[in-house]
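Repro:
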Amino acid sequence: MDLIDYIKKKIIAPKVANLTQTTTSGVDSFEKYQYIVGQIKSLNDLQQELTDLQKKQELIDEDDEDRGDTSS
């Protein structure tokens, strides 16, 4: 498991699940609900950025392999 997968699976996913559970089980104020929804959106955005970064890195790695570059 590389670093990006680790961050997504061990840090972001459980936090999103916890915040989602908190939201569905009920919050005591609309402000708290808005905060939690914002946190979930931010974490989902971060997860997408990490996925995009991972794809770019895989393309770079494939390009390096095609050129026979093993320095990375």
